[in-house]
Amino acid sequence: MINVQRLSKSFKEVQALDNLSFSAPDGQITGLLGPNGAGKTTCLRIIYGLLKSEQGEALINGIDANQDPINARRQIGIFPDKFGLYERLTVREQIRYFAQLHGLSGMELEQRTELVINQLDMSSLANRKSAGFSQGQRMKVALAQALVHNPKHLILDEPSRGLDVMSTRILRDILREQRAQGTCILFSSHVMQEVAALCDRVVVMAKGRVAAEGTPQELCELTGESALEEAFVKIIGSDEGIAA
Ligand SMILES: Nc1ncnc2c1ncn2[C@@H]1O[C@H](COP(=O)(O)OP(=O)(O)OP(=O)(O)O)[C@@H](O)[C@H]1O
Question: pTM for this one?
Answer without folding.
Answer: 0.91
